[in-house]
Request: fold
Amino acid sequence: ARAEKKQALFAELAGLVADGTLHARIQASYGIEHVREAVQAASSGARDGKIVIEPNGPSRAAI
Reply:
């Protein structure tokens, strides 16, 4: 029963993300080669969003 509840919750969350109801602001995105900077940014108290590490992507500032 617990696994079914968890699966239902994740399905509901996925639906909310898909329809745009639920979203997370991305502060910045870093390529894997800049993981040290990403960790520093995530550790700072001055951020206003998520820090994303993209293993196959270039670094970019959030819009």
